[in-house]
Amino acid sequence: MSETQSTDVDRLSRVARKRDLRIAVVESLTSGGLAHEIGAGEGASNWFAGAMVAYMTDVKQHLLKVAPGVDPCSAECAEQLAVGGLELFAADICVSTTGVGGPDPEDGHPPGTVYLGWANQHQHGHEHLQLDGDPEEVLTATVDAASRLLRERAERFDHLPEGADAPTRNLV
């Protein structure tokens, strides 16, 4: 775990425990690397609902409700992965990773093209990254960026007054 990841995960852990948040991640690009880092957070068994690694399109469509025909390396896909993970894990916040690690382009996307999706009960969005380096460097930078994004989204809950806009979960 890089120093940046460690700081982000420590802060995420603090906020998640304080606010009783349920965190999830969905990975297409990072092959479990993000879940590995997040799961190392203090008390993760109490706030880290889980993760899914989904590479195949039919798995993304069936389990995460990604719409047919969506480019797997796109902002739209990243957002749909995060929204699907939010629902699947009954989470308060979900972050997703998708893109092209390299070394070669895929489907017209250059290596290092990365999309991070995020979702909570009220909204969703994405970040686009264009990273340089070999595949390992791209994956490491993606996990760093996704850890930061997850921490930032969780910290938005920390700025609310106690009890305000408390997480609501529909567990079935």
How are the secondary structure elements laid out?
Elements: H1 3-19, E1 23-27, H2 33-38, E2 48-53, H3 57-64, H4 75-88, E3 93-99, E4 113-120, E5 124-130, H5 135-158
Parallel strand pairs: 1-2, 1-3
Antiparallel strand pairs: 3-4, 4-5
Helix pairs in contact: 1-5
Describe the fold and architecture.
The protein is α/β, with parallel strands linked by helices and 172 residues long. A five-stranded mixed beta sheet has the order 2-1-3-4-5. The mean pLDDT is 92. Helix content is 40%, strand content 19%. The chain is globular, with a radius of gyration of 15 Å. α1 (3-19) runs parallel beside α5. The chain starts with a helix and ends in a 14-residue tail after the last helix. The protein contains five helices and five strands.
Concise account of the structure shown:
With about 170 residues, this protein is α/β, with parallel strands linked by helices. It has helices spanning about 5-20, 35-40, 55-65, 75-90, 135-160; strands at about 25, 50-55, 95-100, 115-120, 125-130. Helix 1 (about 5-20) runs parallel beside helix 5 (about 135-160).
